[in-house]
């Protein structure tokens, strides 16, 4: 009887080990950490993360900012094989906000890691800076306020010119500048043709998918999609793909424009 119980326990342990091993065997992300945080409390999220992953498709990974006001899935742009640039549009105002990392495997999303976005030191610094800024504000008399308004109106035009020169052009403008010497493409899109886009894929993922079908490089496919759909990107930024748009297929001539993947990569990296 004792022998039978021992065999049963041993079998149960072996099955459990195999089950646990199988559940982790499919994990592709072996390391993820914040490399550099490029924003502060009250700003829109922008950060670089270190990543070691077996996923070739970025659509298999999700990076989400979770704060008290809700969740926002961040846009992902690869910097190299081991680093990604993450950006969002909603200001992070919650000191306890977190970066949630997920990966898609075995037909569902799995939590990989939860990382705090702000340390106690960063939170204290952010609060003290805001308090200091408020304390330095002094009430002005009506005459001074009126005088300042007049001066601002007088200098408005020159200020606009200066600020415009300092501002970085949008990706669409940079793309036009870099390809100005190329032959102009008349038809940007194919008639009655749209891409498969449900609003939750990244531009990189879409470009990777269609580059195989179009027999061209990923960078070229991304640029062709970007140029063919100028209204699908917030403020003309290549990282600002909107979720509520229909993406039209780039024309044959537009795809030929970016057929050389080395040239396309060079252009993409400057956007």
Task: Write a short abstract of this structure.
This protein has helices at residues 2-25, 120-135, 142-154, 156-166, 171-178, 203-214, 218-228, 252-257, 261-269, and strands spanning 29-37, 46-53, 61-67, 70-73, 75-80, 83-87, 98-105, 108-116, 189-194, 248-250. With 271 residues, it is α+β, with helices and mostly antiparallel strands.
Structure description:
By secondary structure, the protein is α+β, with helices and mostly antiparallel strands. Among the domains are: 29-118, Sandwich (Immunoglobulin-like), CATH 2.60.40; 171-269, no CATH class. It has nine helices and ten strands. The strands form three sheets. A four-stranded antiparallel β-sheet has the order 1-2-6-5, with no helix packed on it. The protein has a four-stranded antiparallel β-sheet with strand order 4-3-7-8, with no helix packed on it. α6 crosses α7 and α7 crosses α9 (261-269). It is globular. The model is unreliable at 19-25 and 156-166 (pLDDT under 50).
List descriptors.
271 residues; alpha+beta; Immunoglobulin-like; 4-stranded antiparallel β-sheet; 9 helices; 10 strands; 41% helix; globular; signal
Amount of helix: 40-55%
Radius of gyration, CA atoms, in whole angstroms: 25 Å
Query: Unreliable runs, pLDDT <50, ≥5 residues?
Result: 19-25, 156-166
Structural class: alpha+beta
Strand and helix order:
HEEEEEEEEHHHHEHHEHH
The proportion of residues in beta strands is 15-25%
Strand order in space, largest sheet: 1-2-6-5
Number of helices in the DSSP assignment: 9
Mean of residue pLDDT?
78
Total strand segments:
10
The description of the largest β-sheet is: 4 strands, antiparallel
What is the terminal-to-terminal distance?
A: 73 Å
Principal-axis shape equals globular
């Amino acid at each position: 009887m004792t022998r039978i119980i021992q065999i049963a326990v041993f079998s149960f342990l072996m099955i459990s080990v195999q089950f646990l091993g199988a559940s982790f065997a499919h994990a592709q992300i072996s390391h993820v950490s914040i490399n550099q945080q490029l924003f502060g409390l009250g700003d829109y999220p922008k950060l670089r993360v270190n990543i070691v992953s077996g996923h070739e498709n970025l659509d298999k990974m999700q990076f989400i900012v979770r704060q008290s006001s809700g969740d926002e899935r961040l846009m992902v742009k690869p910097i190299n094989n081991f680093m990604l640039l993450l950006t969002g549009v909603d200001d992070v105002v919650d000191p306890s906000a977190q970066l949630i990392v997920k990966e898609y495997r075995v037909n569902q999303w799995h939590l990989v890691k939860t990382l705090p976005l702000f340390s106690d030191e960063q939170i204290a610094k952010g609060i003290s800076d805001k308090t200091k800024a408020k304390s330095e504000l002094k009430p002005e008399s009506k005459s001074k306020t009126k005088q300042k308004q007049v001066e601002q109106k007088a200098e408005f035009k020159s200020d606009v010119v200066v600020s415009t020169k300092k501002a970085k052009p949008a990706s669409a403008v940079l793309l036009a500048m870099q390809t100005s010497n190329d032959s102009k493409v008349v038809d940007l899109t194919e008639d009655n043709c749209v891409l498969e886009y449900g609003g939750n894929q990244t531009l990189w993922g879409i470009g990777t998918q269609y580059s195989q079908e179009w027999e061209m490089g990923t960078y070229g496919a991304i640029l062709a999609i970007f140029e063919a759909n100028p209204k699908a990107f917030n403020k003309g930024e290549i990282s600002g793909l909107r979720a509520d748009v229909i993406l039209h297929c780039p024309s044959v001539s537009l795809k030929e424009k970016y057929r050389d993947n080395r040239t396309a990569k060079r252009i993409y990296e400057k956007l």
